[in-house]
Design a protein that fits this description.
Blueprint: H1 9-19, E1 24-29, E2 50-57, H2 60-67, H3 73-99, E3 104-106, H4 120-137, H5 145-162, H6 175-181, E4 186-187, E5 193-194, E6 202-209, H7 229-232, E7 239-249, E8 252-259, H8 262-269, H9 306-320, H10 322-337, H11 353-356, H12 362-374
Antiparallel strand pairs: 1-2, 2-6, 3-6, 4-5, 7-8
Helix pairs in contact: 2-3, 4-5, 4-10, 5-9, 8-9, 9-10
Length: 383
């Protein structure tokens, strides 16, 4: 890749991103978004002066098949490829900046939370517990006395850990805030970034740098049409259709649907439950409340008990062993390694509807909604 010296550094950076497969790229100052805890670039790079925001679009056909429940393998494979492409683009830009004497940091793609850290020791202990539970359920295997004692003590530790209570996920760095200030799009009702050309169907990453770069201008008009189909496809009921919350990003005011506990999102998008608000269709998760022995439960609780209920759901998933426990371990691995290092076989999404329902036009959004609604339900069973 040849970049002549007469080209500005901003132009050179954008050329690298586009040449490597980005569809949108922009720059914002670190100062413009550092007022929020979750978007302060100096938290992970104290010398940060600028942020380069990068987007790669998702494939329309794989989304169509995923929503219609025709198949999801192509959507899974594409998600893996996009995340790796984003990280590779970030690495190229990081190297370019470092070669010119600037500090640079290629951020993790997502699932990198300040207050929800998992280390290798915890993960290995959970893997060991699940392995013992699977052996315990195997009629052809007899646990040793040592294994029986281990499983008892580990279950007690699990119970204590799950009682830690509600966790408000705070990312290391908010790619969406950077993307808004860099002019890639605006935050819509769902809280996702909405772009003019692709709707919400983009995936994001960011590169932080000590270089003081010229910033791009945020979009004047928000591409979100306030159709609120995003709310109609959220089985969890994570955000409101009518109640709004005003947020300020770099001086730009946005209106998003008022949030409830993250447990509503985690229970559904985490694949633990495939149906909650709507019975005529499900997510890709085959699990229902009765899958966990909760035959008398029909909906997620609508009060403050949701967080305790979600903790119980995770505990039941682990103690069930098999694919339910593996689904939990998949989530733990994602938090541990991040999306850019996620194992290919872990790409088995079950939801994400609030984002992918939002195509570039109103006609596409309505068509996508009908595909999802008429796609029916995944058979109850295992992932």
């Amino acid at each position: 890749m040849k970049i002549t010296e007469c080209v500005s550094i901003e132009t050179a950076i954008k050329k690298i991103a586009i040449d490597e497969g980005a569809v949108l790229v922009g720059i914002c100052s670190a100062e413009s978004i550092k007022d929020k805890k979750f978007s302060d670039p100096t938290f992970i790079l104290p010398e940060a002066q600028s942020v380069i925001s990068i987007a790669v679009n998702q494939n329309e056909e794989s989304i169509r098949k995923y929503l219609a429940k025709e198949e999801r393998d192509s959507f899974c494979l594409e998600s893996d490829c996009i995340n790796k492409k984003l990280f590779a683009i970030g690495d190229k830009i990081k190297l370019f900046l470092e070669e010119r004497g600037f500090k640079a940091l290629n951020c993790k793609i997502n699932f990198d939370y300040r207050n929800a850290k998992v280390n290798e020791t915890i993960y290995k202990a959970l893997v060991n517990l699940v392995s013992l539970i699977n052996k315990q359920k195997d009629k052809n295997y007899q646990l040793s006395k040592n294994e029986e004692n281990t499983i008892k003590s580990m279950k007690k530790m699990l119970e204590i850990g799950l009682k830690q209570g509600k966790v408000d996920f705070v990312p290391e760095f908010s790619h969406r805030c950077a993307a808004e200030m860099a002019g890639l799009g605006r935050i819509g009702w769902s809280g996702n970034l909405i772009t003019k050309k692709f709707g919400a169907r983009v995936m994001l990453t960011s590169v932080l740098t000590s270089a003081k770069l010229k910033s791009d201008t945020p979009l004047k008009k928000n591409p979100c049409e306030m159709c609120k189909l995003c709310e109609k496809v959220c089985q969890g009921g994570f955000f409101s259709k009518d109640d709004e919350k005003k947020i300020i990003i770099g001086g730009v005011e946005e209106k998003i649907g008022k949030r409830k506990s993250y447990s509503y999102c985690a229970a559904i998008c985490g694949g633990f439950i495939g149906q909650n608000r709507f019975n005529e269709w499900s997510t890709w998760s085959p699990y229902r409340f009765e899958s966990y022995g909760l035959e008398n439960v029909e909906k997620l609780p609508l009060d403050d008990s949701i967080d305790d209920f979600y903790q119980e759901l995770m505990g039941r998933a682990i103690l069930e062993g098999g694919r339910k426990a593996e689904n939990f371990l998949k989530m733990v691995r994602t938090i541990l390694y991040g999306l850019n290092n996620k194992l290919k076989e872990d790409y088995i999404p079950t939801c994400g509807n609030c984002q992918i329902i939002c195509g570039p036009t109103m006609e596409e959004k309505k068509k996508s909604y009908n595909l999802l609604k008429n796609g029916g339900c995944i058979e109850r069973g295992d992932l």
